[in-house]
Write a structure and sequence with these properties.
single chain, GMP Synthetase, Chain A, domain 3, 2 domains, 3-stranded mixed β-sheet, 3-stranded antiparallel β-sheet, 6 strands, 52% helix, KH domain-containing protein, RNA binding, KH_dom-like_a/b, R3H_KhpB, Jag_KH
Length: 170
């Protein structure tokens, strides 16, 4: 039997343990990054929607952490990919870990949910598809979820990085 697994554990707890391990590896990696960059921040870990979720938060001025977010979250996206690679290097498994810094993704998620709900409302009232601006995979997922919650369907069209969401009538 390998370390960290038990034969009596249900399959769901194995997944949770794996995701918690991903979070721990990511936290260690990000703590090292914060040390190198001489930035203050605390690491919060959670498991959300079958993926590890790691956040860097700070009591001090979040201006320092904004450097790690970058313009339109570009630096955040890159750091998330690097963190996923660090997890992959340790575990050998591909990670779907989500990284948030200074609440950027949480705020963006709320804005995108509202955008998806407004687009769904427009489609319901006019009966015509609505095409949205190009978005990242994270942004499209949030919009798709909001459209689904509004009782409509949506599709992604186009090629990266110009891939966008189309909200369709029921």
């Amino acid at each position: 039997m390998t370390e960290g697994t038990t034969s009596a554990a249900p399959e769901g707890s194995d997944t949770l343990t794996r995701l918690e391990q991903e979070g721990e590896i990511a936290a260690d990696y990000l703590e090292g990054l914060l040390d190198i960059a001489d930035l203050d921040g605390d690491i919060d870990m959670d498991v959300e929607a079958d993926r590890a979720a790691v956040s860097i938060v700070s009591d001090a001025s979040s201006r320092d952490l904004q450097k790690l977010v970058g313009r339109d979250g570009e630096v955040l996206e890159a750091l998330q990919e690097l963190t996923r690679l660090a997890v992959h290097r340790e575990t050998g498994d591909r990670s779907r870990l989500m990284l948030d810094i200074a609440g950027y993704r949480a705020k963006k998620r709320a804005e995108l949910s509202e955008l998806g709900a407004k687009a769904a409302s427009e489609v319901k009232s006019h009966g015509e598809p609505v095409k949205l601006d190009p978005m990242t995979p994270f942004e499209r997922k949030v919009v798709h979820d909001a459209v689904k919650a509004a009782g409509l369907r949506s599709e992604s069209e186009g090629e990266e990085p110009q891939r966008f969401v189309v909200v369709l009538p029921a």
